[in-house]
DNA sequence: TAGAATT
């Protein structure tokens, strides 16, 4: 774990000397890292709360001074590392690394709610601008959650290459409060790629900006710009989800795709569930170790698949979305505790066709769903040790 | 013509 934390914390002084971050000394960083490693090796800190949550006069919890949103987190940062980093500042009331509901992958942001507003302020001053691997994290107060601030992100294309981020903000600021803006640049030359993002505070502000600016030429520009709502990266299409699952599966089974034989195996993975039958029994057998296993299927309904290590929050929709892309699914079931109604950690999926079921198993067995590794196999006639 | 910003 220490190695993990060290790996994440390739701490560098932010390049931007205007950042408040620049005032923090190396001694402070080393203290933070030291604290983190102590906490990690000691496990989670205590849960006693000397101060209760701040309660406003109308009875609602007011966390506007304690609750932070953290953006631009490294993709591979875990909840544990996230908590360690922010726990090094002060006592945390709650924190959450936000993950994709289906794939379990980090969405690159999270929330930290401190017990003490002073610690929230300290976290902003200390950790905003911290470089973790290739990312520079942003730490700021979370706005109160509401529907009006969702889906307020715009994708802008056709921008003049000479237009700066500041220019773009100036153009859009007439429609509302801008939360973030970004112009994408060529990684080698650093020249604008003519596309960017603008996130407004409110969705209706974003709508007005589309009405006012889509198809318009900025002052002095030769071409009109396109302004539309950005795709939501957490709402992946079935195809994108599949690609991600296959990439994970292919990496597990073949490692980096350097060899022709491995490329061929990936082709098999990709083609099979789109109905292009270039099915290789050897590939499947090597991945699922079916030899000698006593299967229950096919029953009248199809092939029954056992899925183990689901989270207590798992529901049927997760199973549909995990297995659906591989072919015909006729039934899914999450096994729940009778009293709590939480998932007991496993479920079943029935698929009509053997090859599609085998492909789903080959791809999803060992698949990491959040911080859990799924075990997926054909259901056997023997009672599973669970 | 594509970022991981509302639990």
TrEMBL record:
Domain RRM: start-end pairs: 66-144, 152-232, 303-381
A GO MF term: RNA binding
Superkingdom per UniProt: Eukaryota
Repeat keyword on record: yes
Keywords: Repeat, RNA-binding
PROSITE patterns in the cross-refs: RRM (PS50102)
Annotated Gene Ontology cellular component terms: ribonucleoprotein complex
Pfam families membership: RRM_1
NCBIfam families xref list: ELAV_HUD_SF
Protein family: Belongs to the RRM elav family.
Full protein name: ELAV-like protein
Naturally occurring in which organism (per UniProt): Labeo rohita
Lineage of source species: Eukaryota, Metazoa, Chordata, Craniata, Vertebrata
């Amino acid at each position: 774990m220490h190695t993990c934390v060290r790996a994440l914390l390739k701490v560098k002084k932010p390049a931007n000397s205007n950042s408040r971050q620049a005032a923090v000394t190396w001694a402070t960083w080393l203290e933070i890292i030291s604290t983190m490693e102590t906490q990690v090796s000691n496990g989670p800190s205590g849960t006693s709360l000397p101060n209760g949550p701040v309660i406003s006069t109308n009875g609602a919890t007011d966390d506007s001074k304690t609750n932070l949103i953290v953006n631009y987190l490294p993709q591979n940062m875990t909840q544990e590392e996230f908590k360690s980093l922010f726990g090094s500042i002060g006592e945390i009331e709650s924190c959450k690394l936000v993950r994709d509901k289906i794939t379990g992958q980090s969405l690159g942001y999270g929330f930290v709610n401190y017990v003490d507003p002073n610690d929230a302020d300290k976290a902003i001053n200390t950790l905003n601008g911290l470089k973790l691997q290739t990312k520079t994290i942003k730490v700021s107060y979370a706005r109160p959650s509401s529907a009006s601030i969702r889906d307020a992100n715009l994708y802008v294309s056709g921008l003049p290459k000479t237009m700066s981020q500041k220019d773009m903000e100036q153009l859009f600021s007439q429609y509302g409060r801008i939360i973030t803006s970004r112009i994408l640049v060529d990684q080698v030359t650093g020249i604008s790629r003519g596309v960017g993002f603008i996130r407004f505070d409110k969705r209706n502000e974003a709508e007005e900006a589309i009405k006012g600016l889509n198809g318009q030429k900025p002052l002095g520009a030769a071409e009109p710009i396109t302004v539309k709502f950005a795709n939501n990266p957490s709402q992946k299409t079935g195809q994108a989800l599949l690609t991600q699952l296959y990439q994970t599966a292919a990496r597990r089974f073949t490692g980096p795709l350097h060899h022709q034989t491995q490329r061929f195996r990936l082709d098999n993975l990709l083609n099979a569930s789109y109905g292009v039958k270039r099915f290789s029994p050897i590939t499947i057998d090597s991945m699922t170790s079916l030899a000698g296993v006593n299967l229950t299927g096919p029953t009248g309904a199809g092939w029954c698949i056992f899925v183990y290590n689901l989270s207590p929050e798992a529901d049927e929709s997760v199973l549909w979305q995990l297995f659906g892309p591989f072919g015909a699914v006729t039934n899914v079931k999450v096994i729940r505790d009778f009293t709590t109604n939480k998932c007991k950690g496993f479920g079943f999926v029935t698929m009509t066709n053997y090859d599609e079921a085998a492909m789903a198993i080959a791809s999803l067995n060992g698949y990491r769903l959040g911080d859990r590794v799924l075990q997926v196999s054909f259901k056997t006639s023997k009672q599973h040790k669970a």
